[in-house]
Every structure is written in C-alpha cells, then in structure tokens.
Amino acid sequence: MAGLCGLKILLLWIEIISLANCQDSSGETGNGNGPENSNPSPPHTTAVSTSPSLSTVSVISSPASTAAKSTSPSVPIVSITPSPPHTTAAAPAMSSDTPTAAAQPPLISSAPTSVSTNQTNNSTTMSATPTTHPNKTNIQTDSDNKTSPAVTQLNTTVTPTTQAPPTTPAPPPQCSYTVTPIKFGFQINITSSTTGNYNITINEEGRPDTENKSMVQHSSQNSSHEIKHLKPCTEYEHSVTFIDTSAGRENIHCNSTEKDNKTTTIEMSKDDIKDATSCIPGYVCYQTDWNITSLQSTPNKIQDERCGSKTLCVKLGYNDICTDFTTTITSETCGNSSFNFTKNISIDFLNVSEINQTAPTELPAKINTTLPPNCKSLSIDYSCRERGRVNESKKLSELEPFTDYNCTGQIKDNDGTVKKTTAPVHIYIKCDFDINTKKSSTNTSIELSSTTTSKNCQQVPQNLLYNCSCSRHPPGYKITANNHPPGGTCHVTGLQPYTNYTCEVQPIYNNKRVPESKSYSVTEKTKSGIPDPVTNLKVTVPEHNVIHVKCDHSKNSKGPENKCRVRLITGGVIVDKTDTPNSNLEFRDLSYSTTYTVKVTVFNGDFESEPKTDTVHTQYNDKAVIGFFIFLIILIISVVVAVVVYKLYIKKRKESRNGVNEGVTLESTAIYMNVPPREWHHKETH
C-alpha cells in the first residue's frame, strides 16, 4: 500500500505541473453567463506569481483493500495552501463578467467533468470529479489479489493573497558618543542617537583579556553613563554599539570623537583612598574606587573575597599592636607615586588566634601566655570549666589531675575592662607517679605497701588511692583487695599457701582508674601451709609378721615436699618411721602375735597434716609351728619304724628257731618230684 500511495502522489504532481504549464500558455478568460459555463472542458487558469510558495500539500487517499478484492476507486484529496507573503495570483476565469482576482497557484484536476466555483473575499475553492482521461493511465495495484483501477478524485483549496506594493527600506539609525575622564574611570555620553539599548565595551589598550562589557539604555537624545573601577593613568580602548532589533539588520558601531577610540584615565590622589573597617582580624584595610590591582603597598597587600574588590588590606605584625602603624600605597601606573597612611593600632586589631598559649603539664597549673609586648597595660585572667560541667568555673590553682578542662582567658586593661577573649586552651594534667612497693606474705595473704612520688605533681592528690590485686594460674583467678591511700598497706587475703602470685598496684583517682597510667607489678610467693590429711587409709596384714599400708593424699601439699609419713607404734614406742612419696608401704619381719598402731600424716617439708591411725595384729609364728610339727611327725615316724623293725626282728628270730624243728619234720614226710632244670625250661619256651 505504501508503494501505491507513493505512485499516486507522483502521478498527482505530474498532473499539477502539466496543468500549470497549460494554464501559463493560455490567456483565455471565460464569460460567467455565456455558453462557456456549460462547456464540459476544464477551466483555464492563468497564474501570475512573483514568488509562489505552497506551504502545505496534503493528500488523503482511501485505501484499497486487496484482501476483499474491492473494485471501488481510491480517491485521494489534495489540499494546497499558498504562503501569503510576496504572492500574486490570478483567480480562474468563470465567465466574461467575473473580475480578475489576485493570482494564485494553479488548480489542477486530472480529468474534470464539472466545475463548481465559489469565490468569497480572496479565496477560491474548486471541486473536480475526474473521469477517465485519454492521456492518463489508470493506477492499478499489482499484487497476489488483483484489484480494479483506482480513480483519483482531487479537491483543491487555494487561498490567494493580494500583492503588497513595494516599500523603500528605512535608512540605518545613526549614533555617536564622547568619552570624558573622571575620577575612578570614564563618563560616556551618547549623543544624537536613536533610543534603545547600547553595549559599552572597555578594555586596557593592547589587552583584550581585560574586556569589560555592559549594556545601557538610551532613552533620550543625550544620556551619560559612568564606567568606574578602572586603573589610574591607564589608556583604555572603548566602543559603543547600538543593538538594532530590526529584522535583517546588524548592530551598529557608534562614532566616537576620540582618536583611535582610546582614552587615558586621570591620576590618583591621596584623597581617593579612604580608611576602611578591618574585614579580617589582624589587618589594616583601605578602600578606593580605583582598580586596586594596579596598587602596591608596604607591607604587602592581600586580596581576600571577604573584603570585596575595592578594599586593600595589609597584615599587622604581632609587635605592631599598641603602636602607630604606617602603610605606604604606591600606584605603579602613575609613575610609582606613593602615599603614606598612619594609624594607631589598638588592642582591637589583635587577632586572638595568634596569641601563643602554652598549656600546662604539671600542677599547680599555669598557662604561659605571650601578649603583644607594646601593650604594657594588659593582663590576663583564666577561668576553666570541666568537660560536662560547663556551669562550674575553676581557677588554674584549683585544677585536678586526670581531668579534661577548657580554659579561656580574658585580656583586661588596667581599669578592668575586658578587651579580648582568648581562644580556649585544653588542659589535661597527667601525674606520672613513681610507686615504690614493699611486699611481705603469710601462707594465706600478701601485704603491699607503696610510697608514691611524682615529677610533675608537687603534691600527691588527696583523692588518690591504690587498688591491689593478685592473680595466679590458671588465668582469671584473681583476688582484689580494698583500696588504700599512698603510704598505706594493702592486704590481699584468701590466698593459697605456697603459691606464686603476680600482684598489681593500680592508681585510682576519684574512684576511677587513672587512664593511660601503667600498673606496677610485683611477684610474691606465699608461705607453706598445713597440708590436707590423707584420705582412704587402708592397713592390712598380708603375712603373719608383715603390715601393708595404703594411703591417698592431695597432690598439692601446700609446701615444697609431698610425702606420706608413716609411724609404726607398739607398746607406745615408735618402732619404725618412714617418709615415702608412694601411696603403698610395707613393714616386714615384725613380731608375731603383736598389736601395732599405724599413724599416717602428709608431710610437705615444713608442716604435717592431721594424722590418720589404724590398729592391726600380727599372727603367730607359723614357721615355728610347722617346724615343730615336722619334727613331731619325723619323731613319730621314727618310733613307728623302730617298733615295726623291732617286731620284725623278734618275729624273724622266732621263725628261725621254729624253722629247724619243722625242717626235720618236713624232710621225713617230704614227697619228691622230678622237676627239670631251669635251662631246659627256657629252651622249650624258645
């Protein structure tokens, strides 16, 4: 569709141009009431324009829908409005009675069949319904869906303007000015000039970087304007320009009566310099409307934005207070002409920030202050306030150590009038104490006595105390004693016997630990104490004349040694005494069938614990009994054996006696048998 619209617009412009050419070549004018009104031919329009300008061309075309395959023509509407200035147009001739109007741009129709003309004032509206023109080609869209040719309908609105008669341009305005040197600058008079706004430009000769431009209003034939704050005896370039607001015209440079547009300022006089109030503490200031960058001074001047661009200030020395001070101001541009100014410098010129105040480091406190040496009648009185207690004021002699103070001094004259107040001085006195500590101990306490001196505090403050604490391993086991004053004794009690302690002496002032002060440490060991008694004493008799002792005791004996001391007593007599680090002990080869008392204590090298006792009995002598029984058994066995042997002997004798008689008898009654010899018997068995 975008391509189709572009093609339509292109064809429309071709028709407008061709029709305009036809109208330019035709000079016929139709009659309004003649037969020409019924002539279907398009009207002839003659356009005469000196500078035709079409300000707006609008084409409105109803789109052809290719999707619906519409056959209705697409008719664009064109509206042309000429720009009114400098345009002469001739209205189209409708009839012979129609007067000729101002020329317009031509009205164009591709193939009009009827014309409707309405003319009101200086506007003409024409409507044409185009038909098929033999010399024109219908616009047809070539796409996937073919559409019928589009018929273009043109509506044109033309607004003609009447050509204005030529005017003669007005002559440019004229202006001139004069320059008169005055004090501090120039007076510029604008004379016989057009009223309006003017730019006045001033710069030092040959120095465009110093250009100063200002705009003034000239409302009468003559007006004067002052340009000040310039350098004396200095040549300046100047110019005045009229700001022309007419269209197409440039600003106009005014004529000057001065040669080369250059003028020199007048010389500076002493009266041009006035005394000024000091804008900076410790400075003397002077004011002038001359440009002070061309002025030098002794002492050297300073320029400060607090004083403005017209004030020149010089710094006072500390020794210049309470004296007559002379300042010399010199103009370099006027042949180094100089002027002297003398002023009495009172204490009011003193800059309190320059007063040297040295804060004290010892007690009694004293601030060393250096006042101007030429001010003989001045004195200073200080008052101090503790931080957090601004309503309480103290003198320097009342200050205490380890306290923050801000002290302010009042500078007074002989009559007591306060002239100045100094800047505050911060004071913090830290007494550097030297503590000499003596120590002594018992088995449960340590005593510390301290002697205190200080180099920067002549007297030890009354509110100074010491906090004593002793600690041992493991860390965290710490015992603290009550505070004691310097020269007193600190008792740390509740300690363990025979234990190493590290004791600290910490200064305390006003019940607060003294900040930034070191603690003083000493190491002390408590004396030996009485050890704890044994526990779980067990006495046994493993053998008839042996006693076994077993005892448990604490590993901390509260002394240098840790032993069990066992005493063996019988009949009130100590028969044995043994010290052993072991918990098991035996006593051997004791008396049989004897009662013994066992007494056990813990001995630490200095002290014994409370004893633990037990009583035991040894048994009979089992070895002697066994020997006796063995002897008795042997004896009995010997007797029995002897008896048996004797009986056997007697019996044998009896048998031997009876054997002779019986042998005789047996031989008479014996029966003999044939028994082979033993050798034969063996042979047979083999």
TrEMBL record:
Stretches with biased composition (Polar residues): 130-150
Domain Fibronectin type-III residues, every copy: 533-622
Top-level taxonomic group: Eukaryota
Low complexity composition bias: residue spans: 34-96, 113-129
UniProt cross-references to SUPFAM superfamilies, sorted A to Z: Fibronectin type III
Transmembrane segments: 625-649
Region listing for Disordered, in residue ranges: 26-150
Signal peptide: 1-22
Coiled coil regions in record: none
Keywords: Membrane, Receptor, Signal, Transmembrane, Transmembrane helix
Keyword hit for Transmembrane: yes
SMART domains: FN3
Protein name: Receptor-type tyrosine-protein phosphatase C isoform X1
UniProt source species: Lates calcarifer (Barramundi)
